[in-house]
Design a protein that fits this description.
- By secondary structure, the chain is an alpha+beta fold.
- The chain has 2 domains: about 130 residues, Diaminopimelate Epimerase, Chain A, domain 1; about 120 residues, Diaminopimelate Epimerase, Chain A, domain 1 (Roll), CATH 3.10.310.
- Helix content is about 20%, strand content about 40%.
- It has an 18-stranded mixed beta sheet that branches.
- The protein is globular and about 55 Å long.
- It starts with a strand and ends with a strand.
- About 45% of the residues are buried.
């Protein structure tokens, strides 16, 4: 027996950029241990496991080490695969049942829009050792439901940051998002995301981090729609909009692998 499995690069339309995610389409739910083993084998920052449930789908995400409660790029990759491979009808929204509630994916021209919960941050003291691990001066530190947000002084500083991941694993943070105002024409802010405790030294493009970044920059730029650039080595582009207590994440994706997983 085998099940279809794919890899799609998310928040990009150019193969081998953006953030790659595994997408495993299952006929029925599987045990956690098996899904975790598949994610470890895939070695992407997240692998998504999607199961049809009537007119919707259940969706779970795993890093190589743990299950996570919210993942933007793997949700984008999953929606892209479901439409592209005929698992869901084009032109119809997709509803996902997840650990973060019901999430929807909508086709908007060449873009896919994801309806996610906003995760506003609140100011907090910098965790001990964070500045040393990042090798940077921290202008502001905030804590959201799933990310520690750090403001740095410039896009150049964000781009050139070289964290000490051994030290960062010992800092009391789950995932760190560093950000600064954009200097690149056409963008509002830039970011990078590090989560060595989750088995991800650096995530190339992080949709869920923008559930925190969008409210943060809304309060500082006094606007509700943004073009965001994640400036990792692979890089990625997000179109972000605040809608009440929700964040609409817009992105594109491209399929790079189609295969079968032996089970």
């Amino acid at each position: 027996m085998s099940v279809p499995i794919f890899v799609a690069d998310a928040f990009t339309l150019k193969a081998f950029t953006g953030n790659p995610a595994g997408v495993c389409v299952l006929p029925a739910p599987r045990e956690v241990e098996w899904m975790q083993s598949v994610a470890r084998e895939m070695k992407h920052s997240e692998t998504a496991f999607v199961v049809p449930q009537g007119d919707s789908f259940s969706l779970r995400w795993f890093t190589p080490e743990v299950e996570v409660s919210l993942c933007g790029h793997a949700t984008l990759a999953t929606a892209h695969i479901l439409w592209a491979q005929g698992f869901a009808p084009r032109g119809h929204d997709i509803r996902f049942s997840t650990a973060s509630g019901v999430l929807t994916a909508h086709q908007s021209g060449d873009w896919i829009e994801l309806d996610f919960p906003a995760h506003p941050e609140r100011a907090c003291a910098a965790p001990a050792g964070l500045d040393s691990a990042l090798h940077a001066k921290l202008l502001y530190v905030g804590l959201s439901e799933s990310h520690t947000l750090v403001l740095l002084n410039s896009e150049r500083t964000v781009r050139e940051l070289r964290p000490d991941f051994v030290k960062l694993r010992d800092v009391d943070v789950r995932a760190v998002v560093v950000t600064a105002p954009a200097e690149t024409l056409g963008y509002d802010f830039v970011s990078r995301m590090f989560a060595p405790r989750l088995g991800i030294d650096e995530d190339p493009v992080t949709g869920s981090a923008h559930c925190c970044l969008a409210p943060y920059w809304q309060s500082r730029l006094h606007k509700s729609e943004f073009m965001a650039l994640q400036v990792s080595e692979r890089g990625g582009v997000l179109r972000v909009r605040i809608s009440g207590d929700r964040v609409i994440l817009g992105g594109q994706a491209v399929t790079v692998v189609k295969g079968e997983l032996a089970v």
